[in-house]
Write a structure and sequence with these properties.
heterodimer; A: alpha/beta; 16 strands; B: alpha/beta; ten-stranded mixed sheet; three-stranded mixed sheet; 13 helices; 19% strand
Chain lengths: 400, 412
């Protein structure tokens, strides 16, 4: 089996941004991760759930976009993250030919609060008194459309809905579209905010930890915590980045998605995604320095991630340092894969992996868990993600 | 080296029928299936029109997935179309082979009725108070996730490949086909089931009504008297596989997916860009990337919603792309018969294109009675007609400015 990225890889990452409770710059976020800080805490809105809230977010601090105030908070976050990422990539406003700029959004639930508000309006105050501007923003594609509108991305605007695996899948799609020449520049973005109904439902389903700290990959893992965050990455072909004198922050080398029909098959499907991504990226498990695991604190899912890594890496399983940033930031769903990618690229360049917050007793042995900052030897990383619906995704990247 | 990708299985569930022959004959007859709705209503809107789909027993949603088929209607339709496409393909894959087959579905609204169900369950309503979280049950989290559409299809088929859900509003179906095409062409998947599903939702009816984009009665695409959209519900699915594999297993090959073009208007959150500029770029990219000469295009399946702006923009785009030849290329909208099914519309239209190639005939634009002097193309008014079709373009556009154009060709 060959992969699209294998034929044309790698695709360069030339800019990125984060908006998280642990910092609104990559440097601040990484410093917090390396010190083991977590933003997951008890939330007065919920009796049996913790959250990771992004407090004091003011979109006007990050971007000046016409109509910003009418957008839902998640869309505002995404628009701001995209503006910051393009600036980080060295693109002044209006510097990119709109016809050569595309956007891929990872968005599973970021329209949901608006949809709930709109629908509740229809059933309570009636159609004529429900705010009509909410309707187009309640579509699942709306956050991506609004983001593309904010940067005048005319090449394409596609939204992927894949739950917790959407971020890595969106990076793979963005890389493919850039590699094929459908755009010279592609922004891949995602954002998540706390939706009361989702948290309440997940708490009832006993998916959430009732108390901090959030423990991932640990024997004591007993559920996750939803978080708020946004992230964006700018992708270009290496030749295009070089032509404008831009040194890439790293490279996307392979991405694969698979599906697990049941929880029992999650480890097998995730291992398959890892193996395919490694094969696409032409990266042997022996040269991996880092694994950024998508484990979120849900015990059986975390266990599947660990087993999948063992199977995919084989004899090299104990070589790369394994980190898992959801222990710090909570489960932010769509942007989680983007945050994993950004922090992994940073870790590869700094040659230090952040520790897994609050990890004391790993539930599955046989991996080199980063219980404290871990020195990295090598420049390649493997990222894993899975969603509650069974979607699995893996991404391979490198620092050079 | 990219592989050639073909359609080797088709499934539709529409008001015009669920069997391919029935569906095709209904389209060719120019029968309009938009009627007063029996199973969907909104108290404030009086009598609503739409093209409703009746599912036979074998297509009904298993209670194990959701015991409330009304709220899970989108999923029910999607599963039915997927099942029919796989049956039609006669694909017999081992469990190991199924690990390399995936699913990409597209939807405009997805599981919106799950939110409607939530709103209803929280009555009595007090607009001054927030929702009562205690009334949100444990399954809402998974039921409201639109990815269930792709996941349940993959689960039912036993597939283990990439399982994705694409949303680009009402061009989601074409976006799904485009992604599936890329995954098969590149070798990342051995085959993909591409599809789409949507049902009637109050968000769509109320939203379009407030925007004055909902037809007061029944839509008339490209007609001078056109006054907006009529909706339909339905789903479509296509099995895409490499040409070599299809030939090897003796599959019926409907058409080749030669490639696609994609663009975004970035103009307005609802209104399309002026003068069909986004359509033009999507069409031109589709022609260029598939190395399709203009004179080889025999038929264009229009987005053709029946709104003032869409139909004008689409017609302008045709004239810009085809120039002097524009009037010689038939272009029609099957939405005039089965309504606008939103996300799956372009999948269903891709099926119609594949059947057009099979039958060497083009479906009509029904109810087109009074030509608009501004729109001067061959819209195939009334009933379908025989016409040699080897290459089709299939256009789709969506809220937010998403345009996707597919190129389908006869496999010789």
């Amino acid at each position: 089996m060959t992969g699209v990225l294998a034929a044309v890889a790698p695709v360069a990452v030339t800019g990125y941004s984060v908006l998280t409770p642990l910092g609104d710059s990559v440097a601040a976020l990484v410093a917090a991760l390396r010190s083991g800080r977590s933003s997951v805490a008890a939330d007065a809105d919920f009796e049996t759930a913790c959250t990771s809230r992004l407090l004091d977010f003011d979109p006007t601090r990050y971007a000046k976009v016409r109509g910003m105030r009418v957008y839902p908070r998640a869309t505002q976050l995404e628009i701001c993250a995209v503006a910051l990422a393009l600036a980080d990539a060295g693109f002044a406003e209006g510097a990119i030919d709109p016809l050569q700029l595309g956007a891929v959004t990872a968005s599973s639930f970021s329209h949901l609060e608006t949809l709930i508000e709109y629908d509740r309006g229809l059933t309570t105050v009636g159609m004529q008194r429900t705010n009509p501007t909410l309707m187009p923003l309640a579509l699942p594609s709306a956050p991506g459309a609004a983001t593309a509108l904010s940067i005048t991305a005319k090449a394409f605007a596609i939204t992927l809905n894949d739950g917790g695996a959407a971020g890595l899948a969106a990076l793979g799609l963005g890389a493919r579209l850039v590699a094929e020449g459908r755009a010279r520049v592609c922004v891949v973005a995602g954002a998540a905010t706390i939706c009361r109904e989702l948290v309440s439902s997940a708490a009832r389903a006993k998916l959430l930890t009732p108390a901090a700290p959030l423990r991932v990959l640990d024997e004591a893992s007993c559920g996750t915590a939803f978080g708020e965050a946004a992230a964006a990455l700018v992708l270009e072909r290496p030749a295009d980045a070089a032509a404008r004198g831009r040194a890439p922050l790293g490279f996307l080398r392979g991405q694969a998605s698979t599906f697990a029909p049941s929880q029992d098959e999650l480890a097998t499907a995730l291992a398959r995604a890892c193996q395919r991504a490694l094969r696409q990226g032409k990266v042997a498990p022996e040269v991996l320095a880092l694994v950024s695991c998508g484990a979120s604190g849900i015990a059986n899912s975390d266990r599947a991630h660990a087993i999948a890594l063992q199977r995919a890496l084989g004899d090299a399983a104990e070589r790369p340092a394994v980190t898992a940033i959801k222990g710090n930031l909570g489960e932010v769903l769509d942007p989680s894969g983007l945050l994993q990618c950004i922090t992994a690229l940073h870790a590869l360049r700094e040659r230090v992996a952040p520790p897994i917050a609050a990890l004391e007793r790993p539930a599955v042995a046989g991996l080199r868990y980063a219980t404290r900052e871990a020195e990295l030897a090598g420049g390649a990383a493997l990222l894993t993600a899975s969603s509650s619906t069974g979607s699995c995704s893996a991404l391979v990247l490198s620092s050079d | 080296m990219r592989r050639r990708v073909v359609i080797s299985g088709c499934g539709v569930v529409t008001a015009a029928g669920h069997e391919l022959d029935t569906f095709w004959n209904a389209l060719m007859s120019g029968t309009c299936w938009v009627k007063p709705l029996q199973h969907f209503a909104h108290a404030e809107m009086g009598a609503l029109h739409g093209a409703e789909t009746e599912l036979p027993g074998e297509d009904r949603l298993p209670a194990s997935i959701d015991d409330n088929p009304y709220r899970a209607r989108c999923l029910e339709l999607g599963l039915a179309a997927a099942r029919r496409a796989l049956l039609d393909s006669k694909l017999k894959a081992t469990p190991e082979a199924r690990e390399n087959i995936g699913v990409v579905f597209g939807t405009t609204m997805g599981e919106e009725r799950q939110v409607g169900d939530l709103s209803e369950s929280q009555a009595p309503h007090d607009p001054a108070e927030p929702a009562t979280p205690r009334r949100v049950d444990a399954s809402f989290f998974s039921r409201v996730n639109n990815h269930q559409l792709a996941a349940q299809v993959a689960r039912a088929a036993g597939f283990g490949g990439p399982t994705l859900l694409a949303t680009t509003a009402c061009s989601s179906g074409n976006a799904a086909i485009a992604q599936a095409y890329d995954l098969v062409a590149s070798g990342e998947a051995d085959a993909m089931l591409a599809g789409g599903a949507d049902t009637f939702t109050r968000l769509i009816y109320c939203g379009f009504s407030r925007m004055s984009a909902l037809s007061a009665s029944i839509c008339r695409p490209f007609d001078k008297q056109r006054d907006g959209v009529s909706f339909g519900e339905g789903a479509g699915a296509l099995l895409l596989e490499p040409l070599e594999d299809a030939l090897q297993r003796g599959a019926r090959i409907y058409a080749e997916v030669a490639g696609y073009g994609i663009s975004n208007d970035a103009h307005h959150i609802t209104a399309p860009g002026p003068h069909g500029e986004g359509f033009v770029r999507a069409m031109q990219q589709a022609l260029d990337t598939t190395q399709t000469a203009l004179e080889r295009v025999d038929y264009v399946s229009a987005h053709g919603t029946g709104t003032l702006y869409n139909d004008r923009g689409e017609s302008e785009a045709m004239q810009k792309i085809f120039g002097a030849r524009a009037k010689q290329v038939p272009i029609s909208s099957i939405k005039s018969m089965i309504g606008h099914t939103n996300g799956p519309a372009s999948v269903i239209e891709a099926v119609a294109c594949a059947l057009a190639i099979q039958h060497n005939a083009v479906p009509p634009t029904a109810r087109l009675q009074e030509p608009d002097a501004e729109l001067d193309l061959d819209y195939v008014p009334g009933i379908g007609r025989a016409h040699a079709v080897s290459t089709c373009l299939s256009l789709a556009a969506g809220f937010g400015g998403h345009n996707v154009c597919l190129v389908l060709k006869r496999v010789s």
